[in-house]
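thread from #wetlab-drylab

HS: before we spend reagent money on co-crystallization trials with iron/sulfur cluster, can we at least see a predicted complex? here's what I'd submit
DV: go for it
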Amino acid sequence: MIKITTNITTHTAKLIGKNGNTTMLQWRAGTSQQEMRKSCEDAGCLFLGGGQYIDLDSGETIADSNLSITEGTAFSDPVYQGPNGEDAIRVDKCFSIFGTPYLGAYLTEIRNPERAGLAGLKLALSQIQRNADRARGALVGNASTVMSESEMAQVDSAIRDAGLFHILYDHAWRQNPWVLKYATASCNHFQDVRDAISMGATTLSLVMPQNLINRYRGKKIGDHVMIQCPENVSPKMSCLNCGGKSAPLCDARKRDKIIVLFYQHGSTSWKRSKEATIKNISKASVKPEVKPADRREKTILKKREEATLKELNRAIRLSDRGSIIEIGKRAISNVSKATAKRYRKFLGISS
Ligand code: SF4
């Protein structure tokens, strides 16, 4: 049996957006969580560990002692540089294997055995929306480490014969170069990109912080141009409408000469940490002296927190110093000295 599990998602936001009226067929590499995780280990994926610093160009690891760090604030991403000023990145943790895409596969092999293998894929294909035109492969895992090339050909054909585009990524393209015929090459640095292109990759992906994406977007490596994933830049975009009728950007068989840049979005990314800090500041800013006594008071407090969060995000976006200082100072008066120091630095408020 081909080691895949297929379902039709109604709530994977990156794939289908957030309106809840759409669906997409997605398959995972592996028929159990154990197999999915092993496929990532076999691929030697860097995102399984995360936290290390690498040179963006060469991919070499940079020791902490050789690293220069400019901490991030509400207005700028952190900057990491190697000993000679080279761009460096802090490797993120995988959003998929440490998030809902993996958790959602809990005991699927026992609860939904009908989803396994080629039969499971064909069953899902018979149930998709009539206007569906694309599917997502290897939402979790690396296909080339759990299946042979001929098995991949069967999976890909089943999807394309049903009239769908096939969005697929693989981290194990060095070990299994045949997968580049079917999958976007998941890369960690520019040397990976150069190597994958020389091995025949049509489409590639690279994860970076937004400040580096801003610098490299539109530039080329060979004939391949770097484009930021449209879902990253517009709430109206998702894999469902990306690329329109011509094919989603990450369909390796339909697209060519594209390097898709994703901002880091895993659990250890600056994006998540920044969002959490802004949320905590908003909460601290409206923290009452006495805890809410009942459900009504709790609801009122929640609404105040939400309104303050909206206001703070707006103020940061527009660099509205007056509002930032007002919200920030209220928060600082409600937290410990160490946290207050951190919030001041983050919001650029002097003591
Ligand atoms: S580039 Fe398009 S297909 Fe690829 S992940 Fe982004 S939205 Fe999806």
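DV: The first helix runs from residue 13 to 16.
HS: ok that's useful, forwarding to the group
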